[in-house]
Specification:
single chain, 54 residues, 0% strand
Length: 54
């Protein structure tokens, strides 16, 4: 199943126009930097959200 999901996402990604790929890449890098800052360089675990009560 993960391979099917990966292939599907890759298919969508390859179909995007160049500006969308650039914006998506910048957004991904911003999220990665944010996660690195919040976890002190990935040395601590990120905060997990508990959805069991919703």
């Amino acid at each position: 199943m993960p391979l099917i999901g990966f292939v599907f996402c890759l298919w969508i990604w390859l179909g995007l126009k160049t500006p969308a790929k650039i914006v998506g890449g910048v957004w991904f890098l911003a999220g990665l930097v944010y996660a690195a800052i919040r976890t002190r360089g990935f040395r601590t675990r990120p905060i997990m959200i508990d959805f069991t009560e919703s």
